[in-house]
Specification:
One of its GO terms (molecular function) is transcription coregulator activity. The chain is α+β, with helices and mostly antiparallel strands. It has five helices and ten strands; from the N terminus they run H-E-H-E-H-E-E-E-H-E-E-E-E-E-H. It has a single domain, classed as Hypothetical Protein Pfu-838710-001. 21% of the residues lie in helices and 41% in strands. Strand 7 and strand 8 form a beta hairpin.
Length: 203
């Protein structure tokens, strides 16, 4: 299991745009994708219980995220974690970072706690999901959480839209050449040129 995770990577590009540009961007992505549907996801971020100690000793804590797509008929939690991106010198064109994920049946939040993690924050993401070959393209606005009800607060109409173009599943280098995954996200970067600036990021 450890060796598989060590060779599994997420390849991604990121962007953001103003709400006024939504129709044009939506049309271009839809026309060049194999499928599209609405999304409304809950995402809970966990950090290690000893996060302060890890930082004091010079270690960068590994965050754990739990995600559930609320619009699915029988939504399941997915736990995933990505490490620090590989150097820009090695992969200058896209964000490439070690990543692992697994689907959880039952209470993923309690499972994360049992692993030694504590909840740090949560957000909701509402928008659209597109599939294009090995990629998933998420386009969404973040919704904050009402502290009293724990329900999402609809995003303001002026809230920026965020875009994540990434491999749908972690790329296992023994199965898929890294170049193929990078080329796939760069194709999307090229087809969105002039409408949406997609770029790598180091966070």
């Amino acid at each position: 299991m450890a060796s598989t995770q060590a060779h599994s990577y997420e390849v991604a590009l990121f962007g953001e745009f103003f709400a006024k540009d939504l129709p044009a961007i939506l049309n271009r992505i839809t026309l060049r994708s194999e499928s599209a549907h609405q999304m409304h996801a809950r995402e809970v971020v966990f950090e290690p219980f000893d996060v302060s100690h890890q930082r004091e000793t010079g270690s960068e804590p590994v965050l754990l995220r739990a995600r559930k797509e609320l619009l699915e008929p029988d939504p399941k939690w997915i736990l995933f974690s990505c490490l620090k991106p590989e150097s820009v010198r090695v992969y200058p064109e896209a964000t490439v970072r070690p990543c692992a994920l697994c689907q959880v049946t039952g209470d993923a939040l309690s499972f994360a706690s049992a692993l030694g993690y504590v909840r740090r924050s949560q957000i909701y993401k509402r928008g659209y999901v597109f599939r294009r070959g090995m990629l998933v393209i998420q386009m969404f606005q973040q919704e904050q959480v009402d502290l009293k009800t724990q329900k999402p607060i609809p995003a303001h109409t002026d809230t920026l839209w965020e875009v994540e173009v990434k491999t749908a599943m972690p790329v296992r280098t023994q199965d898929t050449p890294m170049k193929a995954a990078i080329d796939a996200v760069l194709e999307v970067q090229l087809l969105m040129k002039g409408l949406l600036d997609l770029r790598r990021q180091d966070v």
